[in-house]
Write a structure and sequence with these properties.
Two copies of one chain form a homodimer. Chain A is α/β, with parallel strands linked by helices. The first copy, chain A, has 13 helices and 14 strands. The first copy, chain A, has helices at residues 15-25, 72-81, 98-104, 111-118, 138-150, 170-188, 203-214, 224-227, 230-239, 265-276, 294-305, 327-334, 352-365; strands at 3-10, 45-51, 57-64, 89-95, 126-131, 155-158, 193-195, 197-198, 219-222, 244-247, 262-263, 280-284, 315-319, 339-341. In chain A, β6 (155-158), α6 (170-188) and β7 (193-195) form a beta-alpha-beta unit. At the A-B interface, α2, α7, α8, α9 and β11 of A face α2, α7, α8, α9 and β11 of B.
Chain lengths: 366, 366
C-alpha cells in the first residue's frame, strides 16, 4: 500500500497530541475510539513529530493513497481541508506517488522546456507582462500588445481584472489581441505568446477556454484561488499539448498571509500549482507590494523545479510590483529559469515598446 | 451608474494612503498617473476612511458595477483577489445591487423557507449530521443513514472525506443511501433528506451532480473552497428548484485564521456563500475544534438572514465538534432558524438511532 505523506508545522503546547488530532481530523473526522473496526484501514497515522531548534514541532503524517480517490480535489481536502480552519497548523511539504500524480492528470504538459520552445528563448530569463488597465477599449489593448511583442516580451497576458466587461468583451479582445501579437511576430521576427485571463463562472469557464483556442490564443491565465485548482487540468485537456497555462495567485492570499497556519507559499505555489498542471506560476515576490520573504520566494522556485512525483519542472514567475531596475538582482536570486513578470513599470515614461526593449536587454545581460 | 461598495478594515500607519492603494490595486492595478484618460471610468474610488475607537481604520471603496461583468468570479477578484495577499487589509462588508445579484444567478433557490418545507419542519431548529468515517463500505453507510433518519435527523450529508474511493464508490453510495433514507421516511413517517458530498475535479463535478439527481439524492454538499464559489450556481442549475445546496468550509480557512487580513467569517460564510447560491452554510462554531468567536458566529447568522440584494435568507449551520448537551445554548445563541450540525457526538454510546432521537428532543425543547 502506498501512502501520501504530509508534513505540518505545529505550534501547540502538546504537539504529539495535536499531530494525532490532525491525522484523525483529516481522515476519519471521528474519534478512533468510536470508529468501527472495518474502517480502520482508512485512518491516517502520525509517522513522526520532531521539535526543531526554533521550538516549532514538525509532524509527518501518512495517509493511505486510496483516500485521495485519484482526484486532486480530494487530495486537497485530506491535506489541509478542515485544519485550514485551525491556527497553529501549517502544511509545509507533501509527497505522493507517480500513480496518483498520473491519475490527477499528470501535471504540466509544457513546463519550463515547453514554454522555452514555444517562445524560442533559451539560456536566458523569460519576460512576461500584463495588458492593463481594465476599462480600455479592445483596440487600445491590441495596440498595447503589439508594442509589447515588438519590444521583445515573451509572454503577454491579460491582467486578472480583464474578464468579459462591456469595455472589452472577452471574445472581441482575444481575437484582436491574438491577431495583434501574431502581426508583431511576423513584422519583427519575435515569438511572443498571448494568454487571456479566464475566470468565468461554471460552464462559462469551459466555453471561454474553447473560445481562446478557436480565436488564436496561445494558452490561458487561470486563477485557481477563484476557479479551483482542479480546473487547471480541465482547461489543459481543451488547450491541448502546445498551449501554455499560467497560474495567477488571486484570492489565494488567505493561505500565505500568516506564517502560523494554512499552506506555506513554497507548497502552495511551487508544488500544488505544479501538480495541478500549470506550466508557470505567478507568486508575489519579495520586495514588491506583497508579503513573501526572499527565502520563501527561493523555496517556491526550488519546489517548481525539484523532483516531485515524476512531474516536469515549471517556471517560477515572481511579480507584484517588480521593476526593470531590479532584473539583475531578481535573476541572481531566482536563476535564469524564471519568468519575470513586470507590469506597471513598463508604463512609466509613456513608451511601452522602448520599455519592453529595456526589459529584454536587462534580462539578456543579467 | 450603480456601484459595488466594499468595506475594509485597514491596519496601517497611513490608512488613507493605503485605502487609495487598495482601490487602485483592485481595479486598475496601475498607478493612476500612468493610466490612459480613456480608462478612468473603471477606476475604483475611496468613499471614506474612518478610524474606529479601537484604532482600526475602516475604508469604504466604491467600484463601478460594470467591473464585475455580471459574474461572481470577477466580483470576488475585485473584492479581495490581489489584496488577499497583503496583511493589514480585511474585507468586512460589501453591497451590490439586485441586478448584479440576478446576473450572478439570483442566489439561493430554497433558502431557509425552502429547506423547512422540504423536511416538513417548522418552528424548531433543524438537525444535520454526517455519514462517516470514510473507509466504511456502502452497506454500513446506508444502515447508518437509515438509523439517523429514523431517529429524526432532518438532513443527512456525506462527510467531506467521502468522495469516490474504492471503499464506497460515489454512484454506489448515493444510490444505496438515498434508498435507505427513503425507506426510513416511509417506515417512520419522517422527511429526512440526503445530500452526497460532491467535489469531483473538472467535468467530473458536473457528472456527479447529475448522478446525484438521477440516483435520488435530495441535493448536494459542496465545498466552494475546493471547487470555487461559482460552481454552487452551476450545480444549482442541474439540481433544479427543489434540491438543497449545503456549503462546507473545507479549504476556506486561510481567510478566517487571522483577524488582520483576508475576509471576515461574517462576509465569507454569511454573504459570499449566500450570494453564490447555497441554501445553508456550515461554519466552524465557537466552542468547537476551530477558531471563531461567539460574536463572529452570531454575525455569520445575521448576515445569512439580513436584507441583501434581494436574496432569500439561508440557514446558518454551526458545526465542528458540537454536542447534544450544547443544543440549548446553541439555540439561545443562534435562534431557531438554525441547522445544527452534530457529527461525532452521535456516535458515542454505540446507538446512533437513540442518539439522533436525543438530538431531536433537545432541539424540539430548546
Amino acid at each position: 500500500m502506498t501512502v501520501i505523506t504530509a508534513v505540518f508545522e505545529i505550534r501547540d503546547a502538546e504537539p504529539e497530541r495535536r499531530a494525532l488530532e490532525i491525522a484523525v481530523e483529516q481522515s476519519h473526522e471521528l474519534p478512533t475510539a468510536v470508529a468501527p473496526q472495518e474502517s480502520l484501514h482508512s485512518l491516517a497515522h502520525v509517522a513522526s513529530v520532531v521539535t526543531r531548534e526554533d521550538g516549532v514541532a514538525v509532524a509527518t503524517i501518512e495517509f493511505p493513497t486510496e483516500l485521495a480517490g485519484g482526484e486532486l480535489t480530494q487530495l486537497l481536502i485530506l491535506l489541509i481541508g478542515n485544519v485550514s480552519l485551525q491556527n497553529g497548523v501549517r502544511l509545509i511539504d507533501f509527497a505522493i506517488d507517480g500513480g496518483l500524480a498520473q491519475a490527477i492528470g499528470g501535471g504540466p504538459r509544457l513546463g519550463t522546456a515547453g514554454i522555452r520552445r514555444r517562445v524560442a528563448a533559451h539560456g536566458r530569463p523569460l519576460l512576461a507582462t500584463a495588458l492593463k488597465p481594465v476599462g480600455l477599449p479592445t483596440a487600445a489593448l491590441a495596440t498595447m500588445a503589439y508594442d509589447l511583442a515588438a519590444g521583445g516580451i515573451d509572454l503577454i497576458k491579460d491582467d486578472q481584472g480583464l474578464g468579459n466587461q462591456i469595455w472589452s468583451p472577452f471574445a472581441e479582445r482575444v481575437s484582436a489581441v491574438a491577431e495583434a501579437v501574431a502581426k508583431a511576430n511576423a513584422d519583427h521576427g519575435t515569438s511572443a505568446v498571448y494568454l487571456p485571463a479566464i475566470a468565468g463562472p461554471g460552464d462559462v469557464f469551459v466555453e471561454r477556454v474553447q473560445q481562446a483556442v478557436d480565436l488564436g490564443a496561445d494558452g490561458a491565465l487561470l486563477m485557481p484561488g477563484i476557479s479551483g485548482f482542479d480546473r487547471i487540468a480541465e482547461a489543459g485537456r481543451i488547450l491541448g499539448d502546445d498551449r501554455i497555462i499560467y497560474s495567477h495567485p488571486s484570492f489565494l492570499g488567505g493561505f500565505t498571509a500568516s506564517d502560523e497556519h494554512g499552506i506555506s507559499p513554497e507548497v502552495l505555489f511551487g508544488l500544488i500549482t505544479r501538480l495541478a498542471g500549470a506550466d508557470a506560476v505567478i507568486f508575489p515576490s519579495y520586495g514588491g507590494r506583497f508579503s513573501l520573504t526572499p527565502e520563501q520566494c527561493a523555496g517556491v522556485a526550488a519546489n517548481a523545479a525539484r523532483d516531485f512525483a515524476g512531474l516536469t519542472p515549471i517556471l517560477p514567475s515572481p511579480g507584484g510590483g517588480m521593476s526593470i531596475d531590479r532584473v539583475p538582482e531578481l535573476v541572481a536570486h531566482y536563476g535564469s529559469d524564471v519568468l519575470l513578470l513586470i507590469g506597471a513599470d513598463l508604463h512609466r515614461g509613456g513608451n511601452l515598446r522602448a520599455a519592453a526593449e529595456r526589459f529584454r536587454e536587462a534580462a539578456e545581460s543579467a
